[in-house]
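Appendix B. Raw example, untouched.
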Amino acid sequence: MSWSEWQRTEGEGLDFEEIVYEKKEHLELHGCIARVTIDKPEKYNIMTLDTVEEMFRAFYDANHDPSVGVIVLCGSGKNFGTGGDVEWEKWGLRQAFYNRYPHNRLMRLSRKPILAAVQGYCIGGHNHMAYCCDFTIAASNAIFGQAGPKVGSPADGFFVPYLSKVIGAKRAREMWMLCRKYPAQRAYEMGLVNEVVELEDLEGAVDCWCEEMLSLSPGCLEILKASFDQEMDGYSEMGVISHSMYPDWFDSAECAEGPASFSEKRKPNFWDIRRGS
């Protein structure tokens, strides 16, 4: 394989604070790949609306660059990421439900195939973002899982039932409703990832997958991706079910208890709240 060096992408609207956006070219095939890296390693690459806004701008650029054949999504430091910022969610989760650029929708709306390169923790929003990507390559130290019911963060919409298409209905319910954690090899056996490699081999493996895609017709890959992604359109958008079942959820004590207990490093008292004690 023969690649150029990664170059940060510059231009109007491409000055970022929470992500790193780069491109490199395959010197023999002449196609390029773009890489979007969530860049908050000291906070496990947690996301806010600002993060997602920057991701949208990077994805928009990559999708409108005819030289780009694949988008790689990853996290800086030791982890892929652990979902939304719980401290921010205390105040911003309501807005997140109606954000114009939900991060999973970036995977659905992208014309270019997306490959998630996962190492370390891949939890919550990062996990369902990864399984909405077209491919996922995991380092052997990767750990996957959901955490919503643990921190009082409800989730509904297309990306919840879509997991049933990835790993099956029983496993999908297990992952979402029980908040269990799955090491990389177990995730591979479940069908959550395409390949597991040693951590030091992760970037090389990603390059191999990207080279394979760049050797194919980019137009055909775009059509195939769009055809597969139609699957997600049959499900409701995020927030529809939550709002109908619990219209005042974001003002409820149960909602506030999740992030509060997480921040205070204690067990949540959901059932005391339910009993009114």
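End of appendix B.
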